[in-house]
Model the fold of this input.
Amino acid sequence: MTYRILILGGYGQFGGRIVRTLAAEPQCHVVIGGRHRVPAEAMATALQDEGMAATVAAAALDTQAPDFAAQLIRIRPDLVIHTAGPFLDRRYSVARQCIAAGVNYIDLADNREFVLGIGALQAEAQAKGVLVVSGASTVPALSAAVVDHFRPQFARIDHIDIGITPGSRAPRGRSTIESVLAYCGKPYRVWCRGRWTQVYGWQNLRSVRYPQIGKRWFANCDIPDLELFPPRYQVTGGVSFGAALELRSMQFSVWGLSWLTRIGLIRSWQPFAGPLKSASDLLVHFGTDRGGMHVHIDGLDAAGKPHRMQWFLIARHGDGPMIPCLASIILARKLMRGQLTVTGARPCVDMLTLAEFEAAVQGLDIRFERED
Done:
């Protein structure tokens, strides 16, 4: 039986990778959705010419259009994968329309409030018998899978530190830039030293040395894990997250911009996303295509002795942008094969294992390493 999947933003940076991966599944019917018909049809034609196992089609549709719900019903997908961020709409209009149409929904959001708030749709999703998942991205999907995997080593977790560092040559759309700028210099709360305290986006510079990559400088970024992980893992000390641009000139420039917002000279950098993206594109070739991620856990082992686990992901040869796509691909395959029957609305935790991510990166230049 054919499983119909509509990918919104299907010819974008992440959506295109998801489309190409799922187009290799023979029982799939993949629909490339986007505002513009020409690039969607061009991609569908190219995939068909390559002889992909799935059937591939294109559809021009705008999630903000008044007739989006009607278009959704005409396409009749079993699953919608929403990649067309930034995810700042607290009304969850796309998810709600998927629920109304009886369609499963997955998004790649990593916005803290958006992911945490998806539970508001729990009753609606259960009543319709559909699954609604937010945060099927690097965080919190992969980060939670890593901590879940190593949690049995610890009798107590004192601190979790997570970081993501893309290669300078990794493609980045405007929506990615807008998401980062949304909290640049803005205050948000984190669990630190056993209490909730306030920090500022893109500040608190610190360095982490990666295998095969070297040292990169990280700064505060706001993600769902900062709210989800303290109660989930009963963290006694703190949970921190940082992002690192490969080029120090870019990293320290954004750090400087954050101060202008913090002291009140610039209310928000989001309106400047276009010019800032153009400026960063001029520097792209000064870096590499190597990126990574880390999860460091500190605490006590079963004998009550201090224990630290350091997990690294190293991506080379331009494969880094696949990482945010993996969770949605794994979930889509599980739904398609009848391996995931739960319904309701939830953040993407307790749904994937580290072993499933390890299987999903086969064939890519992505390696997982750990140090105790």
In short: Residues 310 and 371 are 5 Å apart (CA to CA).
